[in-house]
Amino acid sequence: MSAVTEDGVQRASAAEVGDRGREGEGEERDEDFEEDEEDGFEFGDAEEAMQCVEMAGTDAGALRAQANDYEALAARKRKALAEEQPQREGSKKPRQDELSEAEAATMFDQLMEGFGLRRKRRSKDGKKRGRKKGTKNKGSPEVIKKLGDATLLFAEERFNEAIPILHEIVRIAPNLPDSYYLLGSIYSETGELDKAINFLMLAAYVSPKDASLWKKLIPLAKKKEDASLARHCILKAMRADPEDVDLKYLCGDMYRNLRDYQKAAEIYEQIVRIYPANIAVRKVAAQMYRECGQIDKAINLLEDYVNTQTTNIDWSVLDLLISLYLRNNALDEALKKIEKARLQLRPQQKLPIQLQAKEVICHAYLGDVKHAEIFLRDVHLEPSKDNIDVIKELASNLETMGLHEYAVKFYLMIGNVANRNDGSLRVDHKEMGSSYVKVAECYMVLGDKRNAISYFYKAIQSMKDNIHIRLTLSSLLIDEGKTDEAVTLLSPPQNPELQSANAPDQQKPWWCDGKVKMQLAKTYYDKGNLEDFVDTIFHPILETLNVEYANRKVKSMKKLPNTVLHERVKVLGEPRPDSVFQGLRPIASPGELQKANRAKKLIEKRAASNEELKADDSRRTKQVPPIPGLLTNMEHHQLVLNLCRTLALLQRYWDALQIINRTLKLGNDVLTHDSKEELRSLGAQIAYRAPDPSHGFKYVRYVVQQHPYSLSAWNSYYKVISRIEDRFPQHFKYLLRTREEKPDCIPPIIISGHRFAAISQHQSAARDYLEAYKLDPENPLINLCVGTALISLTLGFRLQNKNQCIVQAFAFLYRYLRLCGDSQEALYNIARAYHHIGLNTLAAVYYEKALAVEEEDHPIPKLPYEAGSRAQDDMRTGYCDVRREAAFNLHLIYKKSGATDLARRILKTYCTV
């Protein structure tokens, strides 16, 4: 029975609901080892029996339709009985056209179950169960003769002639199981498995105490791979014949394969009570108790047997018992049993290798390791799979105890045993590789990295696709200063096609794993290979961020999709359209059955209300990113920061902004404040340097929002905005909002004036500058801006009082000159203003004053993200000196007035190198 004996991932339910007529799949009654509530079924008359025979041979559609008709009739009868009940209670005598309770129950039983069977229920008044004597239909001579004829025809394989005779027998004697049994046997011989099961089930239900009928059904259920039906028949057969040990074997194996170890152990223990000398079943029962955590029961089962043995010790039983002692931490008892077994040995006989290893483990737990040394020195093992498993268990226990030196010796012993193989023993390469890994890990704990590296290399030869080994080995190589070897180990192979061909299906190659790429990228970064670092990790990180972003957009549906509900309903089992018998309890845990029943009701409710029935249920599901936990793991944050810095350094600004945008959007809750500030600072720097600064506008805006009264922050903001050629609505809206929220903040007012001046709206520019002047009249820059705006305004055509405006402009400019302390720059600006309006004589005077002043160089102003730049970049020769510009403008005035020699001398003095 492949569906019963091979389906080991499911669990047998604690309730067996196999009897027809029990409604409500969610019942949790444990009746695996209880008797039925009814003795069986019997037909009321021949018409009912013939109707059942027709249903057993009909198709699924007709069967379901007929069952639905019976259910509808039963529902109407229940309603009618409920409506007439009050009238019956008020009258002393029932009317002739009314039904008594017994008649109603009889009609209800006739309508139940879909094919006319009536159950014989337990009596409620405690009467003796079973039929009355003399009521069983033993069959008339006519029936016996027809049955004999049908049997002969069956033996001669004349099935077509036997079937009508058996139908006639059913009509005459509907409660005779032999006719149904012969019909089932006929259909079994002809290969009609479903019909054979139907008729044999009829025979078994008509005569439920006949265990042979249930046994006949078990192989058919196995052949059909119907696990629920097979379990149902096995349990029915066990109830019919509780002393049948073969049935107990079948039941125990069934629960064992279904991983219901508790019930399997109980069944096997029943067999042990019947046959105490059956060692194999005793061992299996102990193993089942061990699997379900009942170590004491397992020990008692084996102790009862071991204590009675004086000769011919079964070493496997003793080995299992000692393993249980070790698991229960009963070391003294285990050593006593081993010593007692040693005393019973014959001369020249030694303890089996399994018990010697268990003895070493017990002494090692007690702090005595000399037995391990004796074992290593004196024991010589033959190459066999059992011996290798024993040494592996011994080495694993020593490693768990912290005795890594001895664990290394025993792990190496596995390789020595395998190397002595003469070819009869096939050792798996992965098994050898795992032992090498254990040796390397022990050497790592002992601090011997050199030997650890050598054994990791041996392991990687057998397990090329093992990512954990590659990562651990690469870390060891980096610690030892062998960075090139680590890079070679983590880099894709020369011929990736050959390696990927050997990789398992549905599994990506090891070099595509996110952990490998991160380790390789970190190695490149530490080594200084920035381009290789970016090429290795950029695409995995970007893909991971995109996948995480898409996963967050997937809505978490409160309503389960129909696909999930249908998947849960599958636990209840597939319907048996060709079977008369429905409602067998599916094989599942009570929790799974509860979920399945809720899902079934929900599907029916949705179908009734037509809700989401026709909707496309193919919703997007969350994908697995290449680097899981990229943002949740704090160790990975530094890798993302290093990638962004490197991309900015390599002038891959758009790639850097992609990473920064996704990281800040997804990691707002997990990133530290310093990390977020650094990413935003990088974004602002990229916005200033990138060809299209509009993508990084939000980062410089963030800097200004954090420091609204910082001139350097507004300076960086304005540098980014001034590089955007087209009108930028976000900038204008932000300026207006800032001016409304912070009316005392001067930088946005000045920037607004600059914006109007750039588009030649000098009147609006002057208005903004004057508003800033009211807030800070002693600011030289504001006075300069007001003066220049008024001068530009006078050059227009609409101004009426130009002279007055010029006078006002120069008033602000001279105030600016006073605030600057007659600096070279202020003198130059005054001269430039006179030159601009055509007063060349005054302009020449101030140009000459500017030429007479020497200005020292001052540090170049820095943007906020440039605070850590080098000192040599802070100074630039001639950065603050404007004498060259003043000389050039002065030579233009001289040249225009005809003083060419004077103009030539000015150029030669100040403008030549």
TrEMBL record:
Annotated TPR repeat ranges: 177-210, 245-278, 433-466
Name by which UniProt lists this protein: General transcription factor 3C polypeptide 3
Isomerase in keyword set: no
PROSITE patterns, per database record: TPR (PS50005)
Classification via SMART domains: TPR (SM00028)
Native organism: Urochloa decumbens
The keyword Cell membrane appears for this protein: no
Compositionally biased spans, kind Acidic residues: 25-48
Keywords (A to Z) from UniProt: TPR repeat
Biased composition (Basic and acidic residues): 80-98
Region (Disordered): 1-48, 76-100, 119-142
Transmembrane region(s): none
